[in-house]
Design goal:
CATH architecture of the largest domain: Alpha-Beta Complex
Shape: elongated
Order of helices and strands: HEEEEEEHHHHHHEE
Distance between the termini: 22 Å
CATH topology of the largest domain: Aspartate Aminotransferase, domain 1
Radius of gyration: 20 Å
CATH class of the largest domain: Alpha Beta
Number of strands: 8
């Protein structure tokens, strides 16, 4: 699996990888990236981005972070946190902090600590989508409702979040959300810009994301 920007941040990836392996973690290749596990549980992963290389922790929200170096991966991310680098010098400067984070991740897994995540059912359906789901007059909406009903709770949550983020993105840019657009073009445009792919909410619910995701789908 080809990972965008992997070559650009190869030296930084190797340095972070070395630090992680010094912490008695097991290295596996997942989603085309260096992922580190403990007791067969994902604890951290290296993610090459366009402008930086990130070291992400799956339970980062529970880690001790006195220097506040960890950031939320996305606005709605509950558990994951990451720290970004643009040079080997920056990694060297926080090496001790990275080792502390890894030590804490191991302790979390040893203790079986879990994060109380918000359930997919707790995410309200955006007004624009709910209006289409309730509309029985248009065949397109009936098919949409049927397709949406077959999605797993996690997939529903993903679509709800994408639509909400598209709306917020459009509003913050000074544009007007065109909820009447039958092809949801405003969602598609934001999806292409932010996720490097496309999304169709018309006759069926499908998705086709490339590897350019800004917010990795595997983080809660």
């Amino acid at each position: 699996m080809k990972v965008p920007y992997a070559k650009k941040w190869q030296k930084e990836t190797d340095k972070v990888r070395q630090i992680a392996l010094d912490g008695d973690l097991t290295e596996e290749l997942k989603w085309g990236k260096q992922c580190f596990t403990f007791l067969k549980k994902n604890v951290a992963i290296v993610i090459p981005l366009k402008d930086s290389c990130a070291f992400s922790f799956f339970k980062g929200a529970l880690l001790k972070d006195p220097k506040h170096a960890l950031e939320k991966i996305g606005e709605h991310t509950q558990a994951g946190r990451w720290i970004k680098f643009t040079s080997l010098r920056e990694i060297a400067a926080v090496r001790s902090s990275l080792k502390d984070y890894l030590y804490d991740t191991i302790k979390l897994e040893e203790s079986g600590t879990k994060i109380d995540l918000k359930k997919p059912s707790e995410y309200p359906i955006p007004e624009e989508l709910q209006r289409r789901l309730d509309d029985n007059a248009v065949l397109r909406n009936a098919v949409l409702r049927s397709a949406f009903a077959t999605l797993t709770p996690g997939r529903r949550k993903s679509y709800i979040r994408l639509i909400c983020e598209a709306r917020e993105n459009q509003s913050s840019a000074g544009g007007k959300v065109r909820a009447h657009d039958p092809e949801w073009a405003w969602v598609q445009r934001v999806a292409e810009l932010r996720l490097g792919g496309s999304i169709s909410l018309g006759l069926s619910i499908t998705e086709s994301f490339s590897g350019g995701s800004t917010i990795p789908f595997y983080f809660q």
